[in-house]
């Protein structure tokens, strides 16, 4: 997969907002999970930070959704860029 830098350059604030929202939502879910699971208090920040970014499976899902006509090419490119940036 590759990032469509044209989408990132044309919609930088939208992409930044998607990345921020994605990371905040995933951080919240992971924080709750860490509290419910027996993760030691000292290890919780590492647990959350290491798992908050997007994953490679997102690329597959977005490509499949685009192929099935669920989302458009520009939307898929933006989401791929957001996941790739979150992994960076």
Explain this structure.
There is one protein chain. The chain starts with a helix and ends with a helix. It is 75% helix and 0% strand. The protein has five helices and no strands. The radius of gyration is 15 Å and the shape is elongated. Helix 2 runs antiparallel to helix 3 and helix 2 packs across helix 5 (73-87).
Shape summary: elongated
State mean pLDDT (0 to 100 scale). Answer: 91
Say how many strands there are.
0
Helices and strands: which structural class?
A: mainly alpha
Largest sheet: none
Number of helices in the DSSP assignment: 5
Which percent band covers the strand fraction?
Answer: under 5%
Radius of gyration: 15 Å
Strand and helix order: HHHHH
Estimated helix fraction: over 70%
Separation of the first and last Cα atoms: 14 Å
Q: Which blocks of ≥5 consecutive residues have pLDDT under 50?
A: none
Task: Please outline the helices and strands.
Elements: H1 5-10, H2 12-36, H3 44-51, H4 56-67, H5 73-87
């Amino acid at each position: 997969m590759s990032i469509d830098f044209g989408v990132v350059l044309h919609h930088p604030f939208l992409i930044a907002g998607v990345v921020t929202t994605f990371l905040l939502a995933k951080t919240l879910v992971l924080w709750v999970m860490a509290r419910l699971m027996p993760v030691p208090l000292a290890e919780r920040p590492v647990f959350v930070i290491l798992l908050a970014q997007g994953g490679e499976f997102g690329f597959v899902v977005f490509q499949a959704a685009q192929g099935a006509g669920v989302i458009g090419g520009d939307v898929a490119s933006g989401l791929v860029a957001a996941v790739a940036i979150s992994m960076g």
